[in-house]
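A brief tutorial aside. Many learners find it easier to grasp structure tokens once they have seen a single protein encoded end to end. The record that follows does exactly this for GNAT family N-acetyltransferase. Read the sequence first, then the structure, and try to relate runs of similar tokens to stretches of the chain.
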Amino acid sequence: MNYLRKLVGQKCYLSPLNSSQSEKVAKWSNDMEVAIRTGDISDMITNEIQRGYLENMNNSSGYAFYIIREEDNEVVGIGRLMRVNFINRNAIMGMFIGEKNNRNNGIGTEATKLLLDFGFNILNLRNIMIETYSFNEPAIKVLKKCGFKEIGRRRKSIIYGNNEYDEVLMDMLNEEFQDSIIDKVLNVKRGD
């Protein structure tokens, strides 16, 4: 399938999300390793329900993209900016890489930077926040690598089995963002 190339990196690119991959995304949504990290583990997601979710993700308060592996145009994840508030210039970011073999190879880091670039340099947002869980150490590592800072924790707010975990809140301001693809296209240097 040919996908539109909205923002392009070296390992992946972002393409506007549609419902064409609803079966693949439903599979991910029911995969315990993915769903436990997104907080959707208790949701009952069928192919039809997933199709409806995907059809409504790009709306007046959000932007959603497929994360597509550059080498073979394979959809490997989803990235979103949600609850976009143009008055206060902020949004909530969410993303995941669905297939295990596409993790730990730099695609998640690059996709995060592409989403931030879109938010800060296309939508002109000032602050982008993300929520994750204390047990999701790989995500926290990627977010810190991209420049996110921890701004707080909601303690023991997630319970899986006999274990309690913190919800970790992280954010980034536009002036903290580095590695802009858009700046490179415009030949702009930060700080000039």
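Self-check: Residues 7-186 form a domain with the Aminopeptidase fold (CATH 3.40.630.30). If you spotted this yourself, you are ready for the next section.
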